[in-house]
Amino acid sequence: MTQSSETPVLDRALERLDLADDARKMLRHAHKRIQMSVPIRRDDGTLSVFQAWRVQYNTVLGPAKGGVRFHPDINLDEVTELARWMTIKCALMDLPFGGGKGGVQVNPKDLSRQELERLSRSFVREMGGLMGPDTDIPAPDVNTNPRIMGWMADEYDQIAGTRTPAAITGKPLPLGGSEGRVAATGQAALYVLQEWADRQDRAPEDTTVAVQGFGNAGAHFAMLAHEAGFKVVAVSDSGGAIHAKDGLDPAPLHEEKEKGKSLDKVYSDTSVSDADAHEQISPEDLLKLEVDVLALAALQDAITQDNVDDVQAKAILEIANGPVTPEADTTLEDRGVTVLPDVLVNAGGVTVSYFEWVQGRTGDRWSAQDVEDRLKARFDRIAPQCFDRAEKDETSMRQAAYAIAVERISAAIESRGDSCYFKG
Ligand code: NAD
Using CA atoms, how far apart are residues 289 and 283, in angstroms rounded to an integer? Predict the structure, then answer.
C-alpha cells in the first residue's frame, strides 16, 4: 500500500489544531501492535503457519473497532495505517469506539472452505483475551465476509463459554447481524452527496454522476442515487464500463451482476436496460468523463499524479478507502475540485456495525427502517458539521473531518487529566 491520503492530513491536523499536547503525542503512536503466528491443519494433514497482526491504534473513546483483512501482501505497517484510519472515522462519526484493524497474510483463494474456517477460528484463538465487546471488536474487510464473521463469533463464544453477540460485527443475520448493513455504505454516501448538492443549490436531476466500482458499496450507491433523482451516467467494474449520457438505471445491471457476470458481459448480452442508450467505454475512460460527480468505489489509489489531470468532475465522492493519493489530493484541492473524503463518505458501514454492537448488547432487534432512520439521523448531524467546519476554517473537507475527529479524541484525553493538569 502506498502512503494513504491520511498520513499527511493527520500530521497537518496535529500541527495546526489547538490540542492537548498529550493528544498530539498519543495520536502519533499505535497503542498496541500484536503479531501472531496462526497455525492450521491443512486438508492433506500438514501444518501451515500464517503471519497475522492486530493493531489497536487508539482506544481512548472506546473499544478498538475495525475489520480483519485476508490478503497475501498485508503487513504490520499497512494494518497500523488502516487502524489509524478507523480511529479517525469512529471519532468523526461520534461512535463510542477507538480504531483497530487485523490482517492475516494469506491468499484465501489458496485455501479450501474447511481450511478457511480453520484459519478464521485459529485467528480468534490467537487473539485470545484481546478481543471482546468492551475491548476490541472485529468486523469484515477485504476478503472476509459475514460467513467468516460467523465462524469467528462461534469460536469466540466457545472460548468464552457464553453467547456474546457484541464481540464481532458483520455477522450473518441469524447469528445477530444487523438489518441494513449491506446497503449502509452506499446509502450513507448518498446522504453526503445530497448535503453537497443542497449546499450548491443543485437539483439531483441536473447532477451527473459516474461510479467507478460496481461492487457492494458502488452498486448500492448507484441504485440509491438513481432512485433519489441523480443522473447516473456511467458505471464500471474491473471488467468493463458503460456510459449513457442521458442516464441509466443501475438496478437491472446489479441484478445481472448478482448472477455472477461482469459489466461488459452484461452489456454485450444486451439483455438489460434495453431502453437506455449505452456506449461501452474502458474503466480508465470513466475517470475522465465530464461529469459533476465522480464516485470512486473500487480500490485505493484510483486517482494518482498520473491521471489526476484527466479528471474533469467538479466533485469526487470517496466511497472506497484512499482512492485519491495525497499528491493527487493536493492537485485537486489546488484546482478547486471538492473531494468528499472517505472517512465521512464511507462511514455508513462502521455506523451500522455500531448499531449491530448495540443490538448485540441489549438483545434488541431493529427493523431495516429503524436502522435506516438512525443512519440518516447520524449523517444529518455529522455531515453538516464537516461542511460547516471546512467553510469556517477555509480548508478542504478532509482537513475539516480530521479536525473534528482529532478534537473529539483530544477532548477525551484532556478529560482524563493531561500534562497541564498534572503540572498544576
Ligand atoms: P467489492 O469487492 O464488492 O467491489 C469492488 C468493485 O470494484 C468490484 O466490482 C470490482 O470489479 C471493481 N473494480 C476493481 N478494480 C476496478 C477498476 N480498476 N476499475 C473499475 N472497477 C474496478 O468491494 P466493496 O465492498 O464494494 O468495497 C469497495 C471499496 O469501498 C473498498 O475500498 C472498500 O474498502 C470500501 N469500503 C466498503 C465498505 C462496504 O461496506 N462495502 C465500507 C467501507 C469502505
Answer: 11
